[in-house]
Design brief:
It is a single chain. This protein has about 325 residues and is an alpha/beta fold. It has two domains: about 190 residues, Vaccinia Virus protein VP39 (Rossmann fold); about 80 residues, Putative methyltransferase TM0872, insert domain (DNA polymerase, domain 1, Orthogonal Bundle), CATH 1.10.150. It is about 40% helix and about 10% strand. It has 13 helices and seven strands. Strands 3-2-1-4-5-7-6 form a seven-stranded mixed β-sheet, sandwiched between helices. Helix 2 links the parallel strand 1 and strand 2. The structure holds S-adenosylmethionine. The site of S-adenosylmethionine has 22 residues, from helix 2 and strand 2.
């Protein structure tokens, strides 16, 4: 299957990331290199593009897409949550820009055998990194009813989480739930009549999102990755994130705010005495949204929110 993924908000990414000739730029979510190909043109022959992905198929597709890139390219298989260790091992120095285009790619969703989609009947997998151990089938067949409810409610914001969790546990006692098709069936049986409106989102959408987030510890990686990027980046570096749901966007928003205004002194004090230093200047007061034209040609862009900040301390100075 060809690697298909249309990059989101490319012009906005280039404007906020502002890659300059000779820069070291880290694309933490390389995917099919849609953003990276454009960034490569901005940093030129003296520049270094470091591309990270936990999906080996994405790295293979990106290697082809970047074969004629006009800069030095370094592709790494790993979790961007470990960005500081990965950068240390590569030894290219502090990055001048870091991009996170969070979540799954269209390719991962469309490749039915990866088990991310509720639209096909395939093994219940959902691993972005196929070398990792934890699959969606493992969670669905071993987690307690309370843990399932918590995952489905917290990560899927699914109001019927309790009913779905209970039904999963009942059904798996008859036979393990090993396919996306059977899980969809269980969810449909658990959802009350009326929750399965023909014009609304698919009733399995939220539970599938929740399991995907849990299998890949997506929120943990976003937290560690963005914090690591802020610590590792050079003074003046730009950090740009695109998120697709409120849980990941909230993590970025709160981290940016905490690093822009770290002072913990009571407002009654005339001057700061806590000594915490501002590490970031946020340059998107509100999240930047895609244009209507973009959403028309790429519906996946609809929920995208871009945030950007400039590092105002040197690497590690804020620790
Ligand atoms: C939305 S896609 C990125 C698409 C890319 N910007 C492009 O234009 O082609 C997200 C990519 O990030 C990868 N990814 C998600 N979480 C990751 C993590 N914690 N560490 C490394 N890669 C991750 C996924 O495997 C996927 O390929």
């Amino acid at each position: 299957m060809d690697y298909r993924h249309r990059p989101v908000m490319v012009e906005e990414v280039m404007s906020y990331l502002a890659p300059a000739p000779g820069d070291v730029i880290v694309d933490c979510t390389l995917g099919g290199a849609g953003h990276s190909r454009v960034i490569a043109g901005g940093i030129g022959p003296e520049g270094v593009l470091i591309g990270i992905d936990r999906d080996r198929r994405a790295l293979e597709a990106a290697a082809v897409a970047l074969a004629d890139a006009p800069c030095r390219v370094c592709l790494v298989h790993g979790d961007y949550g470990d960005i500081e260790d990965l950068l240390r091992q590569l030894g290219h120095g502090a990055p001048d820009g870091v991009l996170f285009d969070l979540g799954v790619s269209s390719h991962q969703l469309d490749a039915a055998e990866r088990g991310f989609t509720y639209r096909e009947d395939t093994p219940l997998d959902m691993r972005m990194d196929q070398e990792s151990q934890l699959t969606a089938a493992h969670i669905v067949n071993t987690a307690s009813v309370r843990d399932l409810e918590r995952v489905i409610f917290d990560y899927g914001e699914e109001r019927w989480a309790r009913r779905i969790a209970r039904r999963i546990v009942q059904e798996r006692q008859k036979a393990p739930i090993l396919t996306t098709g059977r899980l969809v069936q269980v969810i449909l049986e658990a959802a009350p009549d009326g929750a399965t409106r023909r014009d609304g989102p698919h009733p399995a959408r939220r539970t599938f999102q929740a399991l995907r987030i849990a299998v890949n510890d997506e929120l943990g990686s976003v937290r560690r990755g963005t914090e690591g990027a802020v610590r590792a980046a050079a003074c003046g570096a730009r950090i740009v994130t695109i998120s697709y749901h409120s849980l990941e966007d909230r993590i970025v928003k709160e981290l940016f705010r905490a690093r822009e205004r770290p002072c913990s002194c009571p407002p009654s004090l005339p001057a700061c005495v806590c000594g915490r230093r501002k590490a970031l200047e946020v340059i998107t007061r509100k999240p930047v949204r895609p244009s209507e034209d973009e959403v028309r040609v790429n519906p996946r862009a609809r929920s995208a929110k871009l945030r950007a900040a400039i590092k105002v301390l040197g690497p590690g100075e804020d620790e």
